[in-house]
Write a structure and sequence with these properties.
381 residues, alpha/beta, Rossmann fold, 2 domains, 7-stranded mixed beta sheet, two-stranded antiparallel sheet, 15 helices, 15% strand, binds S-adenosylmethionine
Length: 381
């Protein structure tokens, strides 16, 4: 049985995971609050725990509520003026933890109201609690109506113990849900260690995960690739991951979004945490560490590799326009500015020109003006 995460102080690695949840949600919420095509917002934390650790450090449900206020309560004020509804849904299967969760959430809200708006009723709907098995809640009609509603924005947090809750079916339901971003935790080392065990094989086709060919620190990256391969290649979808090493074990987060902006935001959070590869707390691509002679954050192994791939793809004519190039960087878990840097280099070398309005934008890809790339050498020959 998994050790109760809320009974001790959260270890550093758990704090890192919670920080990523917080920052990811901080980036996500304003996008959906300001989106005029979204009527209502639902934020679900289906493995909510009791709300805090023994020292009073916030767990995921209180982190979400705290982030939802925004700086100086700017989001509460915004909701008062635009009338958009934001509903939180919390689930925790264990009764005692569930009861503590309800108490902790209510006291958080009461304190928040007395310190901030002083209103009788919080602008957020936060009292939607359940004490169920996750798989039971996810098959409920009401939840599926929300999940599949195109007018509702959904943020779904799945901080499971272990690996078994986000199976292929649930993963694909989340991927196929409109206006839904999700992030889940998974114990990847465990899947690798017990890859031959029937208990693992019933959830993962481990034969198709090349653990033996990869370095130990890559096992969560392989799990992310495994999930990626469940998505039809014809589908435009963005998946990213973050590996968290604890002792000799590798856990990780997997984030999914069907919008470039969702992926841009998550990548930003990850690259802030890991300047080498934007995907781990353990120097996953063996870059030179700070304090060593060849240390660099600009020419890291991952950036060099994808710069070179992008260069080849542009010069071979496979990438013909900026939007395809920016999305290629995103799909390969690089910041889209990597593409723009390569474009500048190729222009300086007089290997390419552009047709279309010149811009060096790399953010908000969905709004960027497209341009075509012309190969100068090819034309001259
Ligand atoms: C990793 S902890 C979550 C911690 C929480 N996110 C936090 O920040 O404090 C996982 C929680 O999920 C609960 N849980 C385990 N299996 C569950 C299931 N099948 N359905 C719902 N909750 C479950 C556990 O009791 C535990 O509190």
């Amino acid at each position: 049985m998994a050790r109760d995460i809320n009974k001790d102080e959260f270890p550093e690695e758990t704090k890192l995971k919670l920080e990523i949840f917080a920052e990811c949600f901080r980036e996500w919420l304003p996008v959906f609050l300001h989106n005029i095509h979204i009527q209502k917002i639902f934020i679900y934390d289906f493995f909510a725990g009791s709300g805090m650790d023994i020292e009073g450090n916030f767990g995921s449900p209180l982190i979400l509520l705290n982030e939802a206020k925004g700086e100086n309560c700017k989001y509460c004020n915004l909701l008062r003026s635009n009338g958009k509804q934001v509903c939180f849904g919390f689930n925790e299967k264990l009764k005692q933890k569930h009861d503590n969760l309800v108490r902790n959430v209510n006291s958080f809200i009461n304190r928040c109201k007395s310190e901030n708006c002083k209103l009788e009723k919080c602008i957020y709907s936060y009292d939607n609690f359940a004490q169920l098995e996750f798989k039971e809640i996810i098959s409920q009609k009401r939840f599926n109506e929300v999940l599949n509603n195109r007018d509702y924005g959904k943020f779904i947090l799945l901080d499971q113990y272990g690996f078994s809750q986000v199976d292929e079916d649930i993963f694909l339901r989340l991927v196929n849900a409109p206006k839904t971003d999700f992030i889940f935790f998974i114990s990847s080392s465990f899947i690798k260690r017990f890859k031959e065990h029937p208990a693992i094989k019933q959830y993962f086709d481990t034969q198709n995960i090349p653990f033996d060919e990869a370095k130990p620190q890559e096992c969560h990256r392989l799990i992310a690739d495994y999930y990626q391969n469940l998505i039809p290649t014809s589908r435009e979808y963005y998946l990213h991951h973050f590996t968290i090493k604890k002792g000799s074990n590798y856990w990780g987060l997997i984030f999914g979004s069907n919008h470039t902006l969702g992926m841009e935001k998550f990548l930003k959070v990850c690259w802030e945490k890991d300047k080498f590869s934007g995907e781990s707390n353990c120097n996953i691509d063996n870059d030179y560490q700070k304090g060593t002679l060849f240390y660099t954050e600009e020419e890291t192994n991952k950036k060099q590799m994808y710069r070179s791939i992008l260069r080849d793809k542009i010069l071979s004519g496979e990438i013909k326009d900026n939007i395809t190039g920016l999305k290629y960087a995103l799909k390969n878990r690089c910041l889209p500015e990597l593409f723009t840097q390569v474009m500048k280099e190729l222009e300086n070398e007089k290997l390419i020109s552009r047709t279309g309005k010149k811009n060096y934008s790399s953010t908000n890809i969905h709004k960027i003006q497209p341009y075509l790339i012309n190969l100068l050498n090819y034309e001259n020959n």
